[in-house]
Specification:
The chain is an alpha+beta fold and about 110 residues long. About 45% of the residues lie in helices and about 15% in strands. It contains five helices and two strands, in the order αααββαα. α2 packs across α5. The model has no long low-confidence stretch (mean pLDDT about 90).
Amino acid sequence: MATRFKMKRKGVGELLRSDMVRADLVRRAERIKSTAVAISPVGTVRDPHPGQYKGAWEVSSTSRGGRRRNRAVATVRNPTYYARWVEYGTERVPAHHVLLRASIAGGR
């Protein structure tokens, strides 16, 4: 016997904002964060703040994210001012792509 399914936009919206979806996104974000911490570079002896980049990773989440503010979102970020230079590199320092590699490895 065939089963019929009728999708309702309101129901999909409720699902995308649900605590269940948000919890899964946070779980994945925490996994990405732990991978990022594990592969983050630590400064040399001359660095005035060795380990600051590695210790600054944080996860945040909201149920009103996305372009239309209609879905749960979890974010992994590093608030240090030089995080973009570590990620993308400069003309003197090669790119480490920490967040890229962490999201590929740990986001499952």
